Amino acid sequence: xxxxxxxxxxxxxxxxxxxxxxxxxxxxxxxxxxxxxxxxxxxxxxxxxxxxxxxxxxxxxxxxxxxxxxxxxxxxxxxxxxxxxxxxxxxxxxxxxxxxxxxxxxxxxxxxxxxxxxxxxxxxxxxxxxxxxxxxxxxxxxxxxxxxxxxxxxxxxxxxxxxxxxxxxxxxxxxxxxxxxxxxxxxxxxxxxxxxxxxxxxxxxxxxxxxxxxxxxxxxxxxxxxxxxxxxxxxxxxxxxxxxxxxxxxxxxxxxxxxxxxxxxxxxxxxxxxxxxxxxxxxxxxxxxxxxxxxxxxxxxxxxxxxxxxxxxxxxxxxxxxxxxxxxxxxxxxxxxxxxxxxxxxxxxxxxxxxxxxxxxxxxxxxxxxxxxxxxxxxxxxxxxxxxxxxxxxxxxxxxxxxxxxxxxxxxxxxxxxxxxxxxxxxxxxxxxxxxxxxxxxxxxxxxxxxxxxxxxx
Length: 458
Hints:
The protein has helices at 2-14, 16-52, 59-72, 83-94, 121-125, 146-153, 209-224, 243-251, 297-307, 433-449; strands at 79-81, 97-99, 102-107, 110-116, 132-136, 139-140, 160-166, 174-179, 181-183, 188-193, 197-202, 230-234, 258-264, 271-274, 286-290, 312-315, 323-329, 335-344, 360-361. By secondary structure, the protein is α+β, with helices and mostly antiparallel strands. α1 packs across α2.
């Protein structure tokens, strides 16, 4: 042993380029052997479960649970999707599906209608908010999970389904036969606030988002007749979605410059997206509303518009999901969702576990010490760390440039609602303190700049 140790020491000191490859090969072989032993361990545990568990087990379910555990042990956003979950994910990202057009929840074991979507089979058949769907094709919905009931109501366009509905005020259940159609949930809701401020809310980033945004802004511009003073892009409680849609939405308001970059495990896999010329808002002053439910793709858009000073970000700090998941289909099975990169705003900031800080903080309600804590990315188990402090990069992270607003405009924004203000009601925009402050901010900014169409400073 002494001779071997002396020989190794001599090799390491006098000829490292000779000794190192031999040592690496030994280490790789050793690591591979350990991996095989651990795989044997997995097989032993699996066989023990099959033979000894108190009840018979389904082999597929046990193995899928093991795969999912392996992925979820990496970070909160990596996971395994069985074939059914994979299909559901594809439906969500497409933004359209064959179905009835009903937003539903579950109450006392039954499916309860929140609202029918306009111009869908459900709306045309007279389904109303508050209806309880008790049977689907004569089979009770009692005992079904909400997901199982939704899957039964979805189906190919042109196929029929029979709903049994109990409605308040009706003594007998109603029997409705509906023919499924292609449903496109409204991903962009928009309206004019007071006739001079355009408001558009994006609820998700699926394949329909950017097109819906363009149509919304075009419609409101025509409605306003050239009198728009600003635009509000509401990303509150938007959990994100497709990266390419986030890039396109940010690009819609930027003429040039970086939108977002991603950096993976290998340097050669880094990517960067840049804006092309063209601003669909034609330079209108913008506010982006965010809150603790704004995550992922929402944060990409908010961060890009903030760094380029194309918009003022208002609200409270966002969720802080700064990682990219790649969906990798497994032939004949489902797919895995694997975290493959972190993304960075144009100034080089990683928002992983930190979030986007608003330029102007505006709370939705007065502070309540007894209010439950809302989890963010940093609170999740095994959340990736933020690497702003130790990342080796040619471009260090920098804060966004200053706002440079006209005097008195920012100071007139009320951080909290007035004492005694009515509680927030989603059906009454006047109770939405953050929204009302954004509207007033844009009007004050237009007045200070001398006109509704003056181009925003960059």
